[in-house]
Amino acid sequence: MKIAIPAESHPGEARVAASPDVVKAYIKKGAKVAVQSGAGLGSNISDDDFKAAGAEIVKGEAVVKDADIVLTIRRPGEKLLKAMKEGAIVAGGLEPYGDRKALEDFAKAGVTGFAMELMPRITRAQAMDILSSQANLAGYKAVIEAGAAFGRAFPMMMTAAGTVPAAKVFIMGVGVAGLQAIATARRLGAIVSATDVRKATEEQVKSLGAKFVYVDLAEAATAAGYARELTAEEKAKQAELVASHIKSQDVVITTALIPGRPAPTLITKEMVESMKPGSIIVDLAVERGGNCPLSKPDQIVEHKGVKIIGTLNLAGRLAGNATPLFAKNIANFLDLIIQKDGSLKIDEADECISGTLIAKGGKLVHKIYEAK
Ligand code: NAD
Asked: Against a cut of 0.90, is the pTM above it?
């Protein structure tokens, strides 16, 4: 059995879908592992590191030739797909809610695709959850980026020359990224507040020493553990509360997402204009349309003195951590597929398998692609 790890071709993508540690583990299971030359450089992993772990280093797309399993951070493009054998398993970040035509082309290549983003939110699946491992890093990095762009300090400092006030940081959306953002901002000494539409987050916010900004709504958590879209009336209620709170905040980090939907608008242009010049917004939802209509992918927009940071792929900017975690998530998933005797088994009765299987036999097969 051969496992291949191509270099990521997406501009600016520094991560790679395997680390030397997981390569060793795959080899122990009886696999042959091929890594594309240079694939690990963005994560400070050299070809020699992969070689020392037992991988064969291959130049270019030929790395996937005859591979039974191909591991990727992002959905492979046409050229790489062409180099794969029919029926190869492709596991990784496949952007399952992305462009439909590109997804159909992916399926047509005849590969068996597992989109790790669709991993069910069940306890057993936590170790395979790329959204969690990467969002945690992104939440941390969002605070660091905000701190770097903010022309003032986060902690309160009492000096002989006067007192530096603590920065006020507001986190909107308290999922995995939001929780880490709260913890990081608190460690830096900021006064932190946070809001979410899921009631369970109140306890979590308070336990991290932040203030919960509460919008009184009917339960907005779905059975899958995500948020549902709010009704127009609920949105208005939330907007009113946010508008009054945001005026006094120095830094706002937004992370609100609803699976399969555009990101909800949480900060309107008027709200941005109500903030003090020098304030910072980091919009982590920018990839899915943004929580602020002024944010632009991979740009820092300045609007009336407020900087809105829309940097994409913040986890990828911590590739030295993001790669080993992502790699381990996939390795844990492959444990379900690679049997003790080295054979491969796709057991669709397992919800972690059926929940992530998006392409098989030339077609998109996941329920998210069924006509509504
Ligand atoms: P996410 O990235 O989908 O969304 C981020 C946050 O935005 C969520 O907390 C969501 O409630 C919030 N949000 C959505 N709409 C909003 C709005 N209009 N206003 C304010 N906030 C809004 O979420 P996530 O980080 O993937 O986590 C979702 C939940 O799943 C969390 O409770 C997390 O702990 C849980 N989880 C469970 C597992 C597991 O058990 N395997 C793994 C990961 C996460």
From this structure: yes
